[in-house]
C-alpha cells in the first residue's frame, strides 16, 4: 500500500508540471506531498506491525492497533472535510481557470497550456465552448470562433467556428 501511495503522490507531482498555470496556488501540491508522507508513515507502521507479530509482543501489537485507529479516524475526517469543502475548491479552480483563459492570445505560455489541457481532456472552455465568447481573444479575432484545440480530434476540417458546435 505504501508503494502504491508513493507512486500516486509522485504521479500527481509529475502531472502538476503540465497544469501549473491553472493551479496558481502553490498549495495545490499539498495533497500529493501528504500522500507521500502517509506512504512513508504506512511503511514504518507496517514494519512495526510485522516486528510485533514476529516477536509476539503484546505492547507492539497494542501500539500497532492504536496507530491504525488514529489513521482510520484521520481518514474519516479527511473524507468529511473533502465532502464539506468540495464546492469551494470547485469554484476556486474555476475562477483560476477563467483568469488563465482571459490571458489567452494563442502565443504566450498560458495559451500553450490551455491548448494542451483542452486537447488532453477533450474539452473546450471551463464549462463549455460558450466560455470563450467572453474572452479578449474571442473579441480580438472577430471571426466568431474558438481555438482549434477545442475541435474534436476526429474532425479533420474543423475551423472552430461557433456556428458548427457539433465539431467542438
List the helices and strands and how they pair.
Elements: H1 2-19, H2 30-55, H3 58-84, H4 86-102, H5 109-121, H6 136-141
Pfam family, one: Tetraspanin
GO cellular component, one term: plasma membrane
Protein name: TSN36 protein
Task: Describe the protein's architecture and organization.
This protein has six helices and no strands. It is mainly α and 168 residues long. It has a domain at 87-167: Tetraspanin (Cd81 Antigen, Extracellular Domain, Chain: A), CATH 1.10.1450.10. Helix 1 (2-19) runs antiparallel to helix 2 (30-55) and helix 2 packs antiparallel against helix 3 (58-84). Keywords: Membrane, Transmembrane, Transmembrane helix.
CATH fold name of the domain at 87-167, please?
Cd81 Antigen, Extracellular Domain, Chain: A
Envelope shape: elongated
Work out the number of β strands. 0
Calculate the terminal CA-CA distance, rounded to whole Å: 41 Å
Count of discrete alpha- or pi-helical segments spanning 4 or more residues: 6
Q: Largest sheet, if any?
A: none
**Uncertain runs with pLDDT below 50, 5 residues or more?**
none
CATH architecture of the domain at 87-167: Orthogonal Bundle
Tell me roughly what share of residues is in helical segments: 55-70%
What's the helix-strand series?
Answer: HHHHHH
CA-based gyration radius: 23 Å
CATH-defined superfamily of the domain at 87-167:
Tetraspanin
Proportion of β residues?
under 5%
Class of the domain at 87-167 in CATH? Mainly Alpha
Overall mean pLDDT: 81
Secondary-structure class: mainly alpha
Amino acid at each position: 500500500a505504501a508503494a502504491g501511495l508513493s507512486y500516486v503522490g509522485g504521479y500527481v507531482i509529475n502531472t502538476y508540471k503540465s497544469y501549473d498555470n491553472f493551479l496558481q496556488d502553490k498549495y495545490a501540491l499539498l495533497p500529493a506531498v501528504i500522500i507521500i508522507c502517509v506512504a512513508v508513515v504506512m511503511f514504518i507502521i507496517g514494519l512495526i506491525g510485522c516486528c510485533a507479530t514476529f516477536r509476539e509482543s503484546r505492547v507492539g501489537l497494542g501500539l500497532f492497533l492504536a496507530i491504525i485507529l488514529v489513521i482510520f479516524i484521520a481518514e474519516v475526517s479527511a473524507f468529511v472535510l473533502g465532502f464539506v469543502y468540495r464546492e469551494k475548491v470547485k469554484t476556486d479552480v474555476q475562477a483560476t481557470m477563467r483568469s488563465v483563459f482571459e490571458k489567452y492570445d494563442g502565443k504566450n505560455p498560458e495559451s500553450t497550456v490551455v491548448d494542451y489541457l483542452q486537447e488532453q481532456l477533450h474539452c473546450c472552455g471551463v464549462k463549455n465552448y460558450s466560455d470563450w465568447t467572453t474572452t479578449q481573444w474571442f473579441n480580438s479575432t472577430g471571426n466568431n470562433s474558438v481555438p482549434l484545440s477545442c475541435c474534436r480530434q476526429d474532425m479533420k476540417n474543423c475551423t472552430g467556428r461557433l456556428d458548427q458546435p457539433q465539431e467542438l
